[in-house]
Amino acid sequence: METEKRTQISAEQIDNRDLSEQIKEVTKDSHVRAENTELMLSFQRGQVTLPQYKLLLCSLYEIYQALEEELDRNSSHPAVAPIYFPAELARLKSIENDLEYFYGPDWREKIVVPAATLRYCHRLRQIGKENPEFLVAHAYTRYLGDLSGGQVLGRIAQKSMGLKSSEGLSFFAFPGVSSPNLFKQLYRSRMNSVELTAEERNGVLEEAVRAFEFNIQVFDGLQKMLSVTGNEHQESWTNSEAVHSKTLPGTISPMIRMVLGLFVALATVMGLYAL
């Protein structure tokens, strides 16, 4: 696999760096590719709509459910234990609260996600069983990314959607973290202390690149979902792009589709590089 080959070369070149620095280095190309899209450059306009945010929450729910269940199950694993902070970082309950706020008590029946989200979740389940040390890459990418960009994204979302309070924005709040900067220092220190063989470390770096790619694919999948209009909704989502759907959104304009991409890309990419 070409990506893995590039990652292995990069890992050898930066062998003396801490794991957190190595992850930044090997994912640099993916980051540049994502941030230089027209969508990412346009996000600064601060245009986020309620339908977009609700669909994003659906995918985040599935992803964090898989990630946190695997972290819980492997909490005593020597590679996972040092970076296991459920009280400070767990997102699942917050996302559930947000989904209930927007969709109502039957929100589970209204979940809609692209196929890419399910592939991402499948990978998390797979490594949880076969290579728990790889969870380090996914936890670092997701949690510290969300923690870094959470406050800014929360304000953008609240203003753009015209929300008068922070209700529905629990995902962006980390009440268990009093100082994000100090906590990130602690987290990186714990992660850098994880003892890995050379083969395991290279595997974690390859998984970090893979995690980035999964997030980009989710972003693309959400765009495709929103491009389906009229009578094509049900057939397209059933056959390829979406699952768990009982409530289908209406026709979405090209501008709205673009802005959804911006929001997802920022949520999954920008935060990590604000560390």
From TrEMBL:
Record keywords: Endoplasmic reticulum, Heme, Iron, Membrane, Metal-binding, Oxidoreductase, Transmembrane, Transmembrane helix
Catalyses which reaction(s): heme b + 3 reduced [NADPH--hemoprotein reductase] + 3 O2 = biliverdin IXalpha + CO + Fe(2+) + 3 oxidized [NADPH--hemoprotein reductase] + 3 H2O + H(+)
CDD domains named in the record: HemeO (cd19165)
Localisation per UniProt entry: Endoplasmic reticulum
Pfam families from the UniProt entry: Heme_oxygenase
Keyword Heme (UniProt): yes
Family as reported in the entry's similarity comment: Belongs to the heme oxygenase family.
Protein name (Swiss-Prot/TrEMBL): Heme oxygenase
Organism of derivation: Characodon lateralis
